[in-house]
Amino acid sequence: MSTVLILAPVIISSWPAITAAVAGAATALGFVMNRTVQETLAGVQTEEGVENVEVELAESEVLAQSLATNQQIVLNKGSIRLVVERDARGRCKVCASSKGHSKAELKQVAEEFTQKLTQCFIYNKVMKELKGKNFQIVNEEVTQDQSIRINVRRWVD
Amino acid sequence: MAQHEVEISISKTGEVRVHVKNAKGKACLEYAKWLTHVIGKVKSQQATSEMYEPETKSRINLQQNLKTEDEAT
Question: Which domain holds residue A88?
Fold first, then answer.
């Protein structure tokens, strides 16, 4: 009935909104958030045997006015470190590094994190917009394939 | 009073499926436009007949247009 849309997510947002999504993704995937400001990876990158992989969220833009210079979010899970930051083009970037993992493994971790980050960001944004339009949340669930399903309704004249 | 329903499914990759239910015509289009603006870019859209059933008056006009087109062909 009515219409069915398939939408590709686009993340254009301020840093605080992205930070909230990063926190959600970190919790879901078992990462611990260490710092939110001014971390540099210089020490890690120069350490021998440490692999680095960068994954960029292609359809993203972090609004510069909301971001202090060199602001980053650093997350850890075991020996894996993730750094979420805004790159030179304004896109959101996730850098995974570890001493005990291959590049392929790190790429998989970084991609999984960017996907969860995107899901969390869209969830937060959609819920905020739905509440702003006076929709009533009828049901909310996480399905077996890890999708988040939200059913809402609204009465209109 | 009419009840409009929307089912939103956010996949683990972030792709979103939106199903607007019980909203007809302009209202349905407005929901689709609004959610596209909120979420991102349209990859595909499937409309059903209900979307083209706005109000009685408009429906009549639509039927008249279809009839005219049939006669022309």
Answer: 11-127+134-153
Give the closest residue to A70 by CA, choosing from A83, A85, A53.
A85
* A vs B: CB pairs below 8 A: 154
Closest CA of chain B from A63, distance in Å: 16
pLDDT in tens, B37-72: 999 999 998 877 665 665 433 332 323 443 444 444
Does residue A3 belong to any structural domain of this protein?
Answer: no
Q: What is the pTM of this model?
A: 0.82
What's the pLDDT score for residue A155? 87
CA distance A92 to B24: 38
The answer as to whether A45 is a domain residue is yes
Q: Which residues of B touch A138 (CB under 8 A)?
A: 5
Question: Is residue A4 in a domain?
Answer: no
- What residues 98-137 of chain A have any CB closer than 8 A to a CB of chain B? 115-116, 118-119, 121-123, 125-126, 129-130, 133, 135
What was the ipTM of the complex prediction?
0.85
Confidence class of residue A46 from pLDDT cuts 50, 70 and 90? low
Sequence ranges of the domains in chain B: 5-72
Phi-psi region of B14 (alpha: psi -120 to 50; beta: other; left: phi over 0): left
